């Protein structure tokens, strides 16, 4: 069983994917976390996002591992540190590099090779799992997505204006949609789910209903 979930930032992809994974007893792979790990490494090594060669080398040396909810990069627990607004901002800088994508996509395909999996990201239905039986494209109004992110930041004690969160999300979506390699696309065979105004449970139920109907 292969399930692909794509969509812009804050659409609810990872929340829903984790729930579906638990319900069907399959592996969840957060591909965004992998790109975040590379951006985090670049920030640790001096913050130079213009040195493509160095970024590729850092990506080649990165050993990314998932353990339950935790993410490790080269042995270090980076679960929290890859979620900061600074890492979010810079992740699309590393995600547009062809060699970085090839490296991570190969790892993602390998994980999906011998087990049932649900993955979320931007290029899952198009590049990573083009043959997936189930493809979903989650979307939501950008203001609602920014409000969701603000609530998350507030809960962590990080103060940030809604307007600037919204602007960053729009910038990131534009970067993700307009890059040449593995852009965010809504593939033709994806089911589009607009999550605006919908609770997590409603979205999850709609996706499960579709999967169960196809399986039956
Ligand atoms: O959770 P959120 O949607 O904010 O971000 P994420 O899924 O963790 O992804 C962070 C960034 O990684 C995205 O903005 C993309 O630039 C990049 N990414 C990608 O290029 N391809 C993927 N399959 C997943 C993420
Ligand atoms: O992975 P992605 O960036 O697409 O979004 P997420 O991290 O799963 O969700 C962003 C935030 O929106 C989380 O705090 C979710 O709890 C929340 N959310 C929501 O309030 N309503 C939904 N229908 C989906 C997500």
TrEMBL record:
Stretches of the chain forming a coiled coil according to its record: 148-175
A GO biological-process term: pyrimidine nucleotide metabolic process
SUPFAM superfamilies: P-loop containing nucleoside triphosphate hydrolases (SSF52540)
Record carries keyword Cytoplasm: yes
GO MF annotation terms: ATP binding; CMP kinase activity; dCMP kinase activity
EC number: 2.7.4.25
Enzyme type, top EC level: transferase
InterPro entries: Cytidylate_kin, Cytidylate_kinase_dom, P-loop_NTPase
Predominant cellular place of this UniProt entry's protein: cytoplasm
Ranges where the Cytidylate kinase domain occurs: 3-212
Reaction(s) this enzyme catalyzes, per UniProt: dCMP + ATP = dCDP + ADP; CMP + ATP = CDP + ADP
Protein name, entry field: Cytidylate kinase
Species in which this protein is naturally found: Acetobacterium bakii
Gene from which the chain derives: cmk
